[in-house]
Amino acid sequence: MGKGRKMLKWREVAILTVAALVIFIVGFANFGDRDVSAEAKNMGPPKKAVALEQASELKKQIKGSNLGRSIDEKASKQAHEKVVYLTFDDGPSPDVNKLMDTLNKYHAKATFFMLAPNIKKHPEAVKRMAKEGFGLGLHGVTHDPNKFYRSGKSALHEMEQDQKVLEDITGIKTHMVRTPYGSFPYLRESDRSLMESHGFKIWDWDIDSEDWELKSRQYVPKVINSLNSIEKAGRTPVILLHDHENSATLKYLPELLSYLKQHHYKMKSLDDSMKPVTFQCHNRCYAYSQKHKSNR
Ligand SMILES: [Zn+2]
């Protein structure tokens, strides 16, 4: 094997040397943009015959070599590259390290919207997230809509507490928040303004995997179907997923990640500088308690 590889390397070096020589002889420099055969055809004999033969052989060799291939692949990848943002709520769970391992296998980044008590339980995992470039977001403290949405101040206060817990562990002060169950319809317009005036950015999603309800492989085709319609609408996909212990989300995640990879999606993490994807209230928001009173 070793010898074979070495010979292959020498062969490639030889091909490249011949390539350089022919380019020099034929007398043009910009190989990639010009047709070698056409250049050679314009020459007079006998130089023409030699150059034609060499040029066509060279084209074949360069096309078949690793060099030619990697350039082709890179160009086609750039042309097809699309971005998707995976987000995981409610963690960190005891499985969060496995989750990061799986993401890493596919060179995928993601963002975690985390609860303060869980951050305290898994500080090392959260440090690892920060170190490896995953996105860090806040999800509050109680995850109880009756408490979180009781007032604008209660929602703000939970996010501030969560922010402090995360900062104490990682040294990073994030402003990305996702309110429990999403900002609509619970977060009233005034609560939203209060949170935003304190610098928080409220992130919702445009694809709900429904992993929390399906609890099976079914969330994968659900996401794939939604992706197609989001893409047609020209929007950037932000996918809601959950970091729960022993979850179907983690079990079937490789299936989703390999689909995304095969379809040239780049999986990135969110950051504080981005404009958030967020549900609009349009005066239809109301507090959780009001919702239950009116029984809607
Ligand atoms: Zn949640």
What binds here, in terms of ligands, is: zinc ion
Beta strand count: 8
Alpha carbon gap, first and last residue: 70 Å
Residue-averaged pLDDT = 81
Note poorly predicted spans: 22-69, 291-296
Helix fraction, binned, reads 40-55%
Number of domains: 2
CATH architecture call of the largest domain: Alpha-Beta Barrel
Structural class: alpha/beta
**Assembly state here?**
single chain
Look at the structure and give the CATH class of the largest domain. Answer: Alpha Beta
Largest sheet at a glance?
Answer: 6 strands, parallel
Rg from C-alpha positions?
27 Å
Counted by DSSP, the helix tally is 14
CATH topology of the largest domain: TIM Barrel
Spell out the CATH superfamily of the largest domain: Glycoside hydrolase/deacetylase
The shape, in one word, is globular
Describe this structure in words.
The chain is an alpha/beta fold and 296 residues long. The protein folds into 2 domains: 2-74; 81-294, TIM Barrel (Alpha-Beta Barrel). Helix content is 54%, strand content 11%. The chain has 14 helices and 8 strands. Strands 1, 2, 3, 6, 7 and 8 form a 6-stranded parallel beta sheet that branches. It binds zinc ion (ZN). Residues 89-90, 139, 143, 180 line the site of zinc ion.
Name some characteristics of this structure.
296 residues; alpha/beta; TIM Barrel; 2 domains; six-stranded parallel sheet; two-stranded parallel sheet; 14 helices; disordered C terminus; binds zinc ion; Peptidoglycan/xylan/chitin deacetylase (PgdA/CDA1 family); Polysacc_deacetylase_ArnD; Glyco_hydro/deAcase_b/a-brl; NODB_dom
